[in-house]
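ok so dumb question maybe but i'm new to this and my supervisor (M.) told me to 'just get the structure for Dynein light chain' and walked off. so i did the thing. is this what she meant?? sequence i used:
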Amino acid sequence: MGETEGRKDEADYKRLQTFPLVRHSDMPEEMRVETMELCVTACEKFSNNNESAAKMIKETMDKKFGSSWHVVIGEGFGFEITHEVKNLLYLYFGGTLAVCVWKCS
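this is what came out, is it supposed to look like this??
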């Protein structure tokens, strides 16, 4: 019975973590929603390759909102950045995966 409960708890945790949790954002609402959807799509598509997910997000953001976007995806990192006002999104997805998207000239 204990092993079955453990699997159920893990499945429940994964199900709860299928939505992005925004840690910080100063983007306008419409841009934030589009960027969140893009991040979720990229992280799901490239679930075993953060580098490819980051490349997909960066290329899409460059095309849609102009160049100079930067993307970091991973677990267990710290950062301090300078960014343009109203061009930052920092979120968690899938439990422990952190995604940071920002623009700077």
